[in-house]
Batch of 2 targets.
Target 1
Amino acid sequence: MEILACPIDKYYPLELHVFEEKEEIVAGVIICPKCSRWYPIRDEIPEMLPDELREEKDELPFLRKWKNQIPKKILTKGKPFNIKTEIEK
Amino acid sequence: MNKTKKPKPQTKTINKMTAEEIKETVKKGYAEVATSPKSCCDASCDCYEPFTGGGETLATSLGYNIENMPKSVTESFAGCGNPVALSNIKENEIVLDLGSGAGLDMFMAAKKVGNKGKVIGVDMTPEMVKKARENAEKLGFKNVEFRLGDIENLPVDDESIDVIISNCVINLTPDKPKTFREAYRVLKPGGRMFVSDIVLEEELPKEVKESIEGYVACVSGALEEQKYLQAIKDAGFEDVTVIDKTKSRYIASDKIRAFKPKNK
């Protein structure tokens, strides 16, 4: 985490929320406080791709799965995808 | 050559594709290299001599000591040089591998930096990152880290890296000047970059130049040497030197060293 920066605005330091941990962080989310982008950690791998290389269909299930642990600001205003409409139903 | 392993022929030519479409195709191509290994430079064009010996033979021919390396490390190896061997990576340093693939170069670097050093690999292909992580676990490396990411948009803090290495990858990026600017940004002042990559020696035949298959095979995306070196210099690097070069027909594999100035 100490040298991880947002690939879009290069902001550092990023926020880390851990959902599952063994020897390494297995699942979690990395948040850029500056641009509100979020990056999943799945199977111990931080997925730090820029918007154009991310697909909504692969990303929304992650938000839904961890919605009780992901900060509300990300669920409703996170970039590049969020589940605002589902949350506010 | 096993024809069944080749990516499906694309109908579009490169000049009609966006940078994103090219990246997606490259990503898919290397997902195949991860899951059903073949060599990078194994295109179906006859513009140069394709390497068909597989990753192990390729790595050995480039001077890697692959003793004790499991097949899963070497079979997807698709480099065109041995940047770690040319580098002077020291103990305790932080190394970043641009396009780390199945991890062979990272593991070579990990031995040099030792337990207090660190090697970070960035690759945009999930299958490769997964494979590299499993390989690190098999080999017991604790000083390596993987990030799924795009080397044109590095998820790395400014001035945090001692040494950048990259092996036969930057030719695959649609925006090479941006990749070098990113490399420059993350290097500490006085940091070094060791790159092995394909450059063009003469103009490619039109059908190869426009072929996305040729692009994935590290040929059609290559720049002429002077343009490549200029892109490195334009990013701010100094003392940009071609330390070794292997020529083939139309293309060459250059081994390049560059420095970020100490005082800016």
Target 2
Amino acid sequence: MTDLPESPRRRFPLEYIVVGVPILVALLHLVMIQSSSQTRWKGGGFGMYADPHPNSYRVVWLVGEDEDGEDVAFSLDPFDDRVRYKRIDAPSRRVALRVLHDIAEDSKNFPERTNAGAIRAQLETLRATEDKDEELQRVLKLLPLAEVRMRVTEISINEQYTALEATPIHEVAIP
Amino acid sequence: MKWRFPDWLTESLDDPEMPLRLFLVFLLIFCPTHGRIVDLIKVEVVALAAIGVLVPWLVRRWEYWGLFTALFAVNLVYSFEHSANHYFLTLYTCMALAVMSYLRNRGEAVRINLPRALLIITFGFATLHKFLSEYFTSGRLLASYFLKGRTLQRPLELVYEGFPETIHAYRDQLDYISGHASVAATSVPITVPAPHFDTLCTSLALSIVIAELIVFGMLAWNKTFYSKWFPYVLVGFVWGTYLFRNELTFFSLLCILGLMGLTQAGRLSRSLLAGSAALLLALSLNEIYLRL
């Protein structure tokens, strides 16, 4: 689409920037996918619909041990329902749940970039407010224990098309 | 009697700035509905787009498109994790329009068909990702969409008896393993509608890769790209893949880029591209997904 006569003087090829930047970003995205658990759906690589969508097929868990030494795991996904569908009186609790949900959503897309400290901060805020939610209380009880970890799992159909399997793709300690 | 376009439509279709105004409409709809754009940026983008609709000569200024580029780039720095691929494509489109306006205002030729280049890059990498993803080429990604009832539900119900029950069972198992029942399961069984279901999914997946590769080739080869029938291929591809996936905003932007880049397009194909872009935007605004 060259619609005007070209100027005789040499000029900086600005068009190559418009072409080069998307290619560079997409190539970087490809490299990052290979070296981390980053999703193809975000990051500017145009990889959507090549892998399962993280919102549906990745789950963020808080894992730890209860008082009896038994392994426990809580999915952070239901917190989204709590924010949307349940009436929560305390604004600080509402905000903490919303932030927790956002952190969990970001962690699905970029697990290695999870801000584990921010998760701890929101859980501390929730712990400081009274909540009658049994599920939430059980999660908060994990806090005093030695090791609480955030784990991201990916759910996929197995090669034989016989089962859904949850595979851990990233785990980080909550400080 | 040969049918002809009414004059009021002809004037609009022949206007070379029509795709730019349509892109402004895209920005007016895309920005408020893209949840993770910072509010301050949203307000500024929408205000700028509205001003551009009211003051038509602005779309010829590189500063105008440069402002959009800067706003989207700043938001990207703040919310990189939240930016989907059509956000990046919107940013690149603004960048392309800024460069094109700048060069034309200086009386210089634009060496590359930038909207075409963006389409080539998008299709190229989209195809590459699918080819590199074993989960896609094995058909399991498509299987997950079918079993969740996200696409082609009615045709599959005609082929497979009891398919609705299969969908319910799959959704229950997905819910279970996702922890909504507070159980940390690592594997749950699922049922496919028929023994050859995996073959169907794999065949369809490979067909999609081949179709995207063909469109990519057509975009990249001058002879096909500048042919009179390629606009119909692009429109057909957009609506064909709409059956599989409801990326309304993204498809709308593909149509708009097609309008900008397909300079040889006749009135009928331009009306199809513009009409498709407008319809997809309207559907996205209402989040109306036409499920087959």
